[in-house]
UniProtKB/TrEMBL annotation:
Residues 1-30 are annotated as: Disordered. The lineage of its organism: Eukaryota, Metazoa, Chordata, Craniata, Vertebrata. Pfam families: Dimer_Tnp_hAT (PF05699). GO terms for molecular function: protein dimerization activity. It comes from Culter alburnus. This is HAT C-terminal dimerisation domain-containing protein.
Length: 143
């Protein structure tokens, strides 16, 4: 479980870093003008650790929260709770979105066309579904 939490945290932080950054247009404070970049090194080295801790806490909170009933809409739930889990909401937006192309569906139809031929025309729809599933998901190692 810790490995899965670590992977989710890393991916959430990567998405957070890739997000649009708004440039600061405010003028520097007098302390910044006086000291320059002297203390920025300490702040930037501590920031990734804080961000990772924040991501871990967010994932742990999400895992401890009650599960969403199967009858509820996950997109609506994320829309309501995106402020509670901001990093995970970015991941949800990425993985719960509708694919922009039909390539995956076309591949399945192509595979089904390869499986259902004149010699196999007596296959039941259930067997065709099972064969397509196995063809797309079964990894057979080469000897």
């Amino acid at each position: 479980e810790d490995d899965a939490v670590q992977k989710v945290c890393d991916e959430a932080l990567k998405l957070d870093e890739d997000g649009p950054s708004t440039p600061s247009t405010s003028r520097p404070s007098s302390l910044t003008a006086l000291l320059g970049q002297t203390f920025n090194v300490a702040v930037t080295t501590a920031e990734p650790k804080l961000a990772h801790t924040r991501a871990e806490e967010e994932v742990r909170m999400y895992l401890e929260a009650p599960s969403l009933p199967l009858t509820d809409d996950p997109l609506e739930w994320w829309s309501t709770n995106h402020h509670v889990y901001p990093l995970l909401a970015k991941l949800a937006k990425r993985y719960l979105c509708i694919p922009g192309t039909s390539v995956a569906a076309e591949r399945v139809f192509s595979t089904a066309g390869d499986i259902v031929s004149a010699q196999r025309s007596t296959l039941t729809p259930q067997h065709v579904d099972q064969l397509v599933f196995l063809h797309k998901n079964l990894v057979i190692p080469e000897l």
